[in-house]
Give the backbone structure.
Amino acid sequence: MDSKNLHEFDAEKIDRLFQQAMDGEITSDLIPINDTTVNIMMDRTKLLMGTIVDYKELMMMYACAMKEIRTKFDVLNTEFKIRYQRNPIRFINTRLKRTASIVEKLGRQKLPFSPENIENHINDVAGIRVVCSYIDDIYTIADSLLHQDDVTLITKKDYIANPKPNGYRSLHLIVSIPVFFAERKKEMKAEVQIRTIAMDFWASLEHQLKYKQEIPNQQDIIMQLKECAEVINATDEKMLNIRRQIEAASDIPTEEDILFEKLCRLDINPD
Ligand code: GTP
Ligand code: MG
């Protein structure tokens, strides 16, 4: 074995020792300290630093995608407010998936942590939740978003038309939008959840169940929640029906009425 091969053999062996130390099979004091060890350590550190930097950059990009989509909804809401004197959106929440949840979700798919795996296998790193007043607003808002020519629909799950067995209702969209950075444009995915205030109220209470250990009356609670989901849905539908009756009862406006209405609304603060 010449000196080069000997060096490679050493490197391979030391690399294996490093792996064993990381896996907890041996203690790190069994790794000899020499030039090869230091080089391997430096290489690993560089690799790790590279991954951390790429990860941070990727998360910044998701945060930007989230801002873009939020702005799209804000614009739609403002337009609605001026046009119909009514806000279809009550509030919007955004969240960036936490590192621990990303690690856990990749782990469930038996995938190692890497920026590529995050991009290719996790659709909800950027999450936007839009809470509306009425059920029809959900579909109006979703259609208005999906009609925009820079928005691509990846998947749509309508848990309002098809509620989950526990009673969960919401409209889920996985979309992709281009985000423009200083030197490039990048398609970024995001999860949009659109629901009514009542559906949101229900989901936040039901969500608490997930974080509780087995509780003695769990089955009963699940049943009560399911009942509540049905009552809430009936109320959502009733509220929509009442709103429609009120709208239908209003006189059909003349052209002059419409123009005058628009004039009255000119000074409404769009914020
Ligand atoms: P995740 O792996 O959890 O993201 O689920 P998925 O990929 O099967 O997607 P799905 O559209 O079913 O759910 C995505 C998200 O919707 C969840 O992360 C929750 O925020 C919400 N969600 C879905 N189902 C429920 C539910 O039964 N209860 C509550 N409270 N939230 C839910
Ligand atoms: Mg999720």
